[in-house]
């Protein structure tokens, strides 16, 4: 299985190795990241992306800040500023700041302890993804019946987007291994094509039958009865179950509600933000005009035209049939509010 993010132990040369996802599927190129600035650049360019992978990046980012700080003689304040910069590199996926703040707790105990915590974040993520994939597959088969299923998914939620295995993708993979998955419709995922470039690459490598469709086809695919369910990942799930994910996700939810088929959100519990009450309070990242107005680096829109480029949307909890985490399946539309009460 592909590893999107790894810590390379090499003494004074220790660093983070990232698979550069901007170059997939054409080239499997690894970035050797040894400074906080280059990690932030990789996060903002989406060389590393996907909420759980960002969580692990946050953890390793703190280790990197200590490592670079020791080399360059940073003060404690400078180390702290660099940790904050990693935590804030992208705003919507809660995992990034969560991972950074979790590892930061151990700064006073030194680099080795921070690195140990960052490794733990990654290991827990893989375990969570494997567990939630089984739970999600069980739930879907119980709901829909024990027959080959057809699915639609949006963006990329596989090993590339996580430390390993995947979330929504993990459920699809699990159904495939059980011989219960007939076809996956993969939304291309404008504007950066995570579906076309990344999800279809992973599905192809895993031998899972799929078709890539333009994002605008998804609602009609659902209404025409071509799929039995939709499954997506999440960047942030608030206390009431509202879910931020890649822009375009809410269209799938609306179509599934109209058609009466399950719309499932899958994420490790690290994506649940108990401190945020509803989706209205989620900061939605807005990205550059060029991503929308250019096609393969060539301007497609007339000069002077501006874009609106939110990277995420929020699906209200009442449109979500189930939220699957490693802790279990919550049927979001019927469960009491808040779904995920703040830990006391
Ligand atoms: C398991 S990944 C879940 C989400 O992070 C994923 O669906 C998504 O929206 C990723 O957006 P991206 O902008 O590629 O980081």
TrEMBL record:
Residues given in the record as substrate binding sites: 49-51, 90, 194, 245-246
Keywords (A to Z) from UniProt: Amino-acid biosynthesis, Isomerase, Methionine biosynthesis
Keyword Amino-acid biosynthesis set for record: yes
UniProt entry tagged with the keyword Amino-acid biosynthesis: yes
Single GO term (MF): S-methyl-5-thioribose-1-phosphate isomerase activity
Name of one Pfam family that matches: IF-2B
Catalytic residues identified in the record: 235 (proton donor)
Reactions it catalyzes: 5-(methylsulfanyl)-alpha-D-ribose 1-phosphate = 5-(methylsulfanyl)-D-ribulose 1-phosphate
Domain of life: Bacteria
Metabolic or biological pathway: Amino-acid biosynthesis; L-methionine biosynthesis via salvage pathway; L-methionine from S-methyl-5-thio-alpha-D-ribose 1-phosphate: step 1/6
Gene Ontology biological process terms, A to Z: L-methionine salvage from methylthioadenosine
Gene3D superfamilies according to UniProt: translation initiation factor eif-2b, domain 1 (1.20.120.420), Translation initiation factor eif-2b, domain 2 (3.40.50.10470)
EC number annotated for this UniProt entry: 5.3.1.23
Positions marked as site (Transition state stabilizer): 155
UniProt record similarity statement: Belongs to the EIF-2B alpha/beta/delta subunits family. MtnA subfamily.
Protein's job: Catalyzes the interconversion of methylthioribose-1-phosphate (MTR-1-P) into methylthioribulose-1-phosphate (MTRu-1-P).
Identification of the protein by name: Methylthioribose-1-phosphate isomerase
Record organism: Leucobacter viscericola
């Amino acid at each position: 299985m592909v590893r999107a993010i790894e810590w390379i132990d090499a003494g004074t040369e220790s660093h983070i190795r990232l698979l550069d996802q901007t170059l997939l599927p054409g080239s499997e190129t690894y970035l050797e990241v040894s400074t906080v600035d280059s990690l932030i650049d990789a996060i903002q360019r989406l060389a590393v992306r996907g909420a759980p992978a960002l969580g692990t990046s946050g953890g390793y980012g703190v280790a990197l800040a200590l490592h670079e700080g020791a080399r360059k003689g940073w003060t404690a304040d400078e180390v702290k500023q660099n940790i904050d910069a990693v935590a804030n590199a992208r705003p919507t996926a809660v995992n990034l700041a969560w991972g950074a703040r979790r590892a930061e707790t151990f700064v006073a105990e030194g680099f080795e302890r921070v690195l140990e915590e960052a490794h733990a974040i990654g290991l827990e993520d893989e375990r969570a993804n494997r567990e939630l994939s089984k739970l999600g597959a069980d739930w879907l088969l119980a709901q829909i019946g024990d027959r080959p299923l057809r699915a639609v998914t949006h963006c990329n939620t596989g090993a590339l987007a996580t430390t390993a295995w995947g979330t929504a993708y993990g459920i699809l993979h699990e159904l495939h291994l059980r011989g219960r998955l007939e076809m996956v419709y993969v939304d291309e995922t404008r504007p950066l094509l995570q579906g076309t470039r990344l999800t279809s690459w992973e599905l192809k490598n895993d031998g899972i039958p799929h078709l890539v469709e333009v994002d605008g086809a998804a609602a009609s695919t659902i209404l025409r009865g071509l799929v039995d369910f939709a499954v997506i990942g999440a960047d942030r799930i608030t206390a009431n179950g509202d879910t931020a994910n890649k822009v375009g996700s809410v269209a799938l939810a609306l179509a599934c509600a109209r058609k009466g088929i399950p719309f499932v959100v899958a994420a490790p519990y690290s994506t649940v933000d108990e401190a945020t009450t509803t989706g209205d309070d989620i900061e939605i990242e807005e990205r550059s005009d060029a991503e929308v107005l250019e096609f393969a680096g060539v301007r497609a829109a007339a000069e002077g035209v501006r874009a609106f480029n939110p990277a995420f949307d929020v699906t209200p909890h009442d449109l979500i049939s189930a939220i699957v985490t490693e802790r279990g399946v919550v049927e979001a539309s019927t469960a009491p509010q808040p779904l995920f009460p703040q830990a006391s």
